[in-house]
Amino acid sequence: MQCRICRNSTGNTPYTVREMMLGLKDAHRYFECARCGCLQIEDIPADMSRYYPPDYYSVSASPEAVGRNLGKALIRRLRDSYAAFGDGAAGRRLYSRFPNPALSLLARAGLSRRSRILDVGCGAGVLLHTLREAGAETTLGIDPYLAADIEYKNGLRIRKATIEVVEGQWELVMFHHSFEHLAEPRETLRQVKRLLAPGASCLLRLPLASSYAWRRYREHWVQLDAPRHFYLHSRESLRRLAEEAGFTIAEFVYDSTEFQFWGSEQYAKGIPLSSPASYAKSPTRSLFSPVDIAYFRRRARELNQEGQGDQAAFFLRRGSSPP
User: Fold this and answer.
1) Tell me, what's the pLDDT at 34?
2) CB neighbour list of residue 209: distance below 8 Å, 6 or more residues apart
């Protein structure tokens, strides 16, 4: 078992992990690198199609399914414009009451409405659609698991494609919980470097093995998501990979949620995410009370503050990390 990130083959720890999102429960072998801490699948399945069915959540949730109330649409647009681009007094007031953390995270990249934004592994493009509605002028999403290209009424285009076929220069290339699904992370970062405009950023939002949740739950950690997640990075393994590709980690923000607890607790008891007894499907029929969920939410915030959350957003820029 040689680590595909740092190439260490000594002292690596094996684990057997079952598919639990869909409830297939077939077993897959993973191992944790003793040197860089990357948790990775031992053998990538030859055919991944059964693990991405047509109703897989990221490709089946159309952003145009959101209600068409014009008043609410205007409120969302004002709020999201402030969150992403930092402008508008009305949007600022709305954001203070109804925050949108995913968009405010993007603001750290210094975006403007004219910024060219590429979303890799975007599914049906929900986040990009929101950005487009907020005023982003040049956007593109790509995802190889789509059934076909998508053209939205607001001008957003989502292509059934991989990053290798994309051209042009982009101010932000982002991966929102898609980087861990990729079999060739080195090649992907080389492609990102090809596409980034001078001074631009790459955003990686992904689960982290260097976390409390992994240490506590191990094979039952919900973000393992076998076998779809090929690599569960530690901060160290991601640093190594980024530097090898010529990037520095300029900034990172923990953004883990209560999902790390209720999802992992369910898996430990054999309850798939898709089960009628899952909190994701029916909170009132699940194992958890509102008090439990409130505790999980509070604990997630504490772990983020302690640098032990189970997911984070990393901003990569060209250059070497400081010693």
Assistant:
1) 97
2) 32, 37, 38, 39, 232, 233, 234, 237
Tokens matching residue 60? 């089946």
**Cα separation, 14 vs 33, whole angstroms:** 9
Structure tokens at 44: 């990538």
The C-alpha atoms of residue 222 and residue 213 are separated, in whole angstroms, by 9
Smallest CA-to-CA distance from 278 within 267, 290, 286 is with 286
Predicted confidence at residue 189, as pLDDT, reads 97
Q: Would you tell me how many other CB atoms lie within 10 Å of the CB of residue 57?
A: 12
Pick out the chain residues at pLDDT < 70.
Answer: 57-62, 64-70, 320-323
Environment class of residue 163 by beta-carbon count within 10 Å: exposed (0-12), middle (13-18) or buried (19+)?
buried
Do 57 and 273 meet the contact criterion of CB atoms below 8 Å apart? Answer: no
pLDDT (tens digit per residue) in 50-86: 998 887 766 656 676 555 666 777 777 788 887 888 7
DSSP letter for 320, please. P
150 within 8 A of 128, measured Cβ to Cβ: no
Q: What is the DSSP letter of 119?
A: E
CB contact at 8 A, 48 and 227: yes
Please give the Cα distance from 249 to 227 (Å, whole number): 27
